[in-house]
Amino acid sequence: MPILIIYAIEIYEFGVLMKASFKPRARLLKLLGDQLIGTPQLAVFELVKNSYDADADRVEITILNPEDVSTASVEITDIGGEGMSLDTIVNIWLEPGADHKQTKRNQGKRTAKHNRLPLGEKGVGRFAVHKLGQIIELTTKNKNNPEIFLKIDWAILDSCKYIEDAEIVVEEREMPQVFTNGSTGTRIVIKELNSSLTRGDVRNLYRNIQSIKSPFEFEAYRLDKSASTFDVSLSVPGHDDWTIDLFDLKAIIEQSLFRFSFLFSEDKWSWDYQFAPNEQLKKQFKVEGRKASETDSYLELPKGKVDLEKNFHAIYQTDRTDFLKDLGPILGEVYVFDFDAALGEQNAIKRWLSENQGIRVYRDGIRVYNYGEPNDDWLEMDSRRVNRLGKGINRRIAVGAISLELEHCPNLIEKTNREGFIENETFSKLKAVVNSALGKLESLRQIDKDRLRQVTKKSTSISFLGIDNPVDELKQIAIANGWEEQLAPAIRRTEKRYNEMQDIMLTSGMAGLNMTLAFHEIQHGISDAKKNLLAGKDISIVIEQFDRFELLLDTYANLLKQEKAREWELASILQSNVDLADVRFTLHDIIYSCPVLTGEHPNFIIKAQRNLIISAVNNLIDNSIYWLDKRWGGELSKKYIHIGVSEEFDKGPAIVIADNGSGWRDISKGEMIKPFRTTKSGGMGIGLYYTDTVMQMLGGELVLLDQGEIDGVPEQADGAIVALVFNGGTPCKK
């Protein structure tokens, strides 16, 4: 048998030097487009970005016959763009991974007309057209060069084995047919669409197109103006009514109650805040507006680690200039609504916010996806809301934007799939700065929130639960995506249970930490359901999750009621926990074992309130799921949870939860049990405290263990180990 030794691309066979090279398959082009780009909307956005880079004045998008897939087409035309010559087509446009834009950016070369730095950097965005359809017709005209036309049929390309075999005919037209009278630019027509376009598809595309260019214009802090010369429009001939009733962002933000803008630049920051009650609030409750501002102050970054590696507070305090060197100026605008205090019709704004919520990111005035999309919470605003006991600002009531200058943040690199930046140290710094600014807004807003509550007689506890009703958000997601009919019965049942629990909490006088503990558990279940809806999971799985969630709500509603201690088998209790968590285990691809249910571990009878134990165990399972995802991400068949029973403790039998997650972090075990101590990003730090409180109420104890300290835990569970030790128990008879 011949022996081959491969070093780089040189192959030695019996001492004879041969040359070898990579031979990319033609199907690679399909992978770059159809499978790399997530959605058709994002594919259109990539083509619009190319027009921006080509120095175009505007882009016109026309959708013809959207409901008939056989005749439908999408036309994307840039007006006044540079266009392309034959040399550019052959040696750049048809070269996947061409780096000419990245080179221009690195050299600081801007476009001649609008002074733009190129946004493109990887040379693959143009292949996104495959996400939309099978045929592309490109017409382009460069100044002083003939008009160029080429046609690509992806079906023919896919039939070729290698890219080099996929020949494309490029035609030069001495007499231009599209760009006449000396005009220049590029038109791309996509035909044989992969699917027809519904009214909902077009409205969603329109929403995305409207967000490409930043609509935020705080002139006092305006950064790069290169995008101000760039416009994008969409038309659907014959279907004008599909988009005519969509709200404009500027009209929406005029109805916001709290408005905040800031500029972080040259190691200092300035901000403006406005409390802007509408005329009805002013007239009915005599509420006066308020303004506040500060100039050239120092930003207070939160103390402690923003992530597990860097303490940005310490770095910023030591050398502010060094901290900023790879970020440049950061402009922010945030508009916050208050549906609890506001009067009048709010449903239209709620519907708009369900599709446009959160904080977007713009570089040189052009949007970076997918920040600010409904399924994205890059600033972890939702968890801020819960962590700050209702004082934080979540995405459901806020919309805003962060504006950056491309030339000053070269280390913010877009992911190849165009879904945000690579999460490196520079990105973590950006999050730290923006979250600090949000903290300032929250403190300013709280002053006016308290004033509103006084004059409108709104209860803090009602506000805490009412504004953040997560079931209401699920309802809006279902309506927006056309799933109302399938999900309505499950949502109604869940909403009924949620409202019942809310009533119990209010009538039982729960407040402060106790209310937060209960809300903590509710939020976990609904958050999971929301993520699965937005991720496009099978509806039947989501409905099954609703069923489990009803059980969870029933459990915690009963938990808040007075329940007498009774005798229960541990196997019966753990069976309920497994039933509650079963769907979550499936969705997170977690393998679990519960030996007491199969007779491999001893079973005991203990005397306690059953629901207290179920809630405590569920807390531990939540923690395990989080740290398993942190350690293993999307790796299949790697995550493991052990739910066992032990008789090794002197006090009595114990339920043992162990996993192969990240294990105990930087905080000592003693500190972990204290309230508000956590290493979770955006975590509340009350799960273990709550579980410890439950065990103390039952006369038992919570014990945190390392591997090897207790028998019966499988070796593969090499992460955290927690034992709920009961005060006495009787072995069950076999």
Automatic annotation (TrEMBL):
Chain ranges of the Histidine kinase/HSP90-like ATPase domain: 608-730
Sorted UniProt keywords: ATP-binding, Nucleotide-binding
The keyword Repeat appears for this protein: no
GO molecular function annotation: ATP binding
Cross-referenced Pfam families: HATPase_c, HATPase_c_3
Xref: InterPro entries: HATPase_C_sf, HATPase_dom
Protein name, as recorded: ATP-binding protein
Phylogenetic classification of the source organism: Bacteria, Pseudomonadati, Pseudomonadota, Alphaproteobacteria, Rhodospirillales
